[in-house]
Amino acid sequence: MAVDLTGKVCLVTGASRGVGRGVALGLLEAGATVHITGRTARNGEHPEGLDRAGSLASVLDESSKYPGRCVAHRVDHAYDVETEAVVLRVLADEGRLDILVNSAWPGYERMEEDNRFTWVDPIWQQPMWRWDAMIGVGVRSSWCAIRVASEAMARQRSGLIVNISFWAAQKFMQNVVYGVSKAAMDKLAADVAHQMREFDVAAIALYPGLVRTEEVLKNAQYFDMSNSESPEFQGRAVAHLAADPALLQKSGRVFTSADLALEYGYADIDGYQPRPNTLETA
């Protein structure tokens, strides 16, 4: 079942690739105006010289297939001033902000270093950059964006804030810092929901399944891809949440993309209906 978000203004951080890219495309599919952020302006121009597919330009090119309007902003969310500025820019240009999706997440960079998958290394071999990337950028930039956007959403008495999270918030999933960061994203959504409820603004944490992002596909030999999801499937989840007239009843809670698909009656872009994970099966 398709939804229509024509007239809605969205901001998706970290949307040059991965889940953020998919969320942006899913919202464009629903007809929304979608502002996206990322550090990579064009393919092959990663600021740290990493070999990572995806860029703002590639999302802009792909956006032409959808009814929505896409606007790209080159932003490094390691810097609060840049995060704050892009939120204010969207508000100045559009006059409102209806949906904020916090997906900026450099913690997945360099999962493989020196031809070795270091994600599962013991604590004493884990590099400090992972903490800085996941907590110092991923969690901090989410809070920074919410802090600025919340005032406008409170004033307009509507809005949806989505933090991209995962089951690692609730169970150990091979990497300590990963779990800490995702638990923080869940708690951030829950407490923002509590404080913003009086303004009719909802906040939720969204758990994708195993998403066929560029980095996952590059390391596919380490994963069971049989129940994987497209990045765009995550965008359909956000779009259907935003269109739900009973959204506030969901505020403060955690949802999986696959469970929302069953509830709202939509499938992935290839027609596949992903099986929802649980705490036990994730």
> What fold name stands as the CATH topology?
Rossmann fold
Task: Identify low-pLDDT runs.
Answer: none
Span of the ends, CA to CA: 27 Å
CATH secondary-structure class = Alpha Beta
The CATH architecture comes to 3-Layer(aba) Sandwich
Describe the structure.
- It is a single chain.
- Helices cover 39% and strands 14% of the residues.
- It has 282 residues and is an alpha/beta fold.
- The chain has one domain: Rossmann fold (3-Layer(aba) Sandwich), CATH 3.40.50.
- Strands 3-2-1-4-7-8-9 form a seven-stranded parallel beta sheet, with helices on both faces.
- Helix 3 packs parallel to helix 4, helix 4 runs parallel beside helix 5 and helix 7 packs across helix 8.
- InterPro entries: NAD(P)-bd_dom_sf (IPR036291), SDR_fam (IPR002347).
- This is Short-chain dehydrogenase.
- It comes from Devosia insulae DS-56.
- Pfam families: adh_short.
Main features:
Rossmann fold; alpha/beta; 282 residues; seven-stranded parallel β-sheet; 8 helices; two-stranded antiparallel sheet; 14% strand
